[in-house]
Amino acid sequence: MEYASLYWTFIRINIKAKIEYRAAFLLTFLSRGIVWSTEFALIWVLLYRFESIAGWGQYEIMFLYALNLTSYSMAAFFCFHPFTKLPAKVQSGEFDELLTKPMNPLLYLMSREFTASYFSNVAFGLLFIGICIYHLDLSLGLWDYAFLLVTLIGGMLIQASAFIYTAIPSFWMVRNTSLAQLFLFDFKDFIRYPVSIYPASIQVVLTLIVPYAFINFYPAQYFLNKQDFLLFHPVFQYLTLAVGAVLITGAILLWRWGIKHYHSTGS
To answer: pTM above 0.70?
Structure first.
């Protein structure tokens, strides 16, 4: 980490650039807040009509939504712009310039393209978590809040690894937007609701193949005192950080392999 201070400098520059235009930053904050709040409210209205889904009440399902939103936003700080824009950078040859720097290409890309505007997403995600805790009358102690933080960090690592995994094929494919759409958005639509409502095959996929259920469904069992595990062992509620660590390690190793076998566009 010889260049750690330099990476942090890139991040600070991005933050200062956003704050410099305070009105624009505030409008972005408010507009994103309206979007997420509207989506939160729509889920509440839907569940208000049906009262519960497979034994999960309104605020329990909204708790799933809040965990997903918060961990996604934490990952998006470092990963949304760097990896969703990577295919265009590779195609244009701009990515080759990044490889000429005497720095870790992955960390350099993530710090240079850091997206400060996701502060609003994290803020509203935490607000929604607080609303759910209040309405569910959850009595959480210091350990519980510490575990909540660990859960969010683990969820962030899972979501960050998804960004990286879906970007790596761009080293060999001209465009891979459909792959990114599938894994970054379409698959995650399943975890808006309890995984237990789906057939066993979907539960297996969301647990063992594309383990998004660890972002919110399994840890929610701990906070909500549920035993809705069905196919899997209750210990899964504690494994979010471990799953995130394994996935991000695999993503980094695959990234390094991709860099090693990357051939410049020549442009």
So the answer is: yes
Q: pLDDT averaged over the chain?
A: 85
52-53 and 56-57 as β-strands: parallel, antiparallel, unpaired?
A: antiparallel
Both structure tokens of 154 = 């683990």
55: left (phi over 0), alpha (psi -120 to 50) or beta: left
Taking only the tens place, the pLDDT of each residue in 199-228 is 999 999 999 999 999 999 999 999 999 988
Give the separation between CA 83 and CA 69, rounded to whole angstroms. 18
Q: Measured between alpha carbons, how far is 218 from 227 in angstroms, rounded to an integer?
A: 10
Q: Nearest 5 degrees, angle CA 5-CA 29-CA 32?
A: 115
Reading the block at residue 217, the tokens are: 């469904």
Tokens 């995994």 belong to residue? 165
The structure tokens listed for 165 are 């995994």
Give domain limits for the chain: 4-260
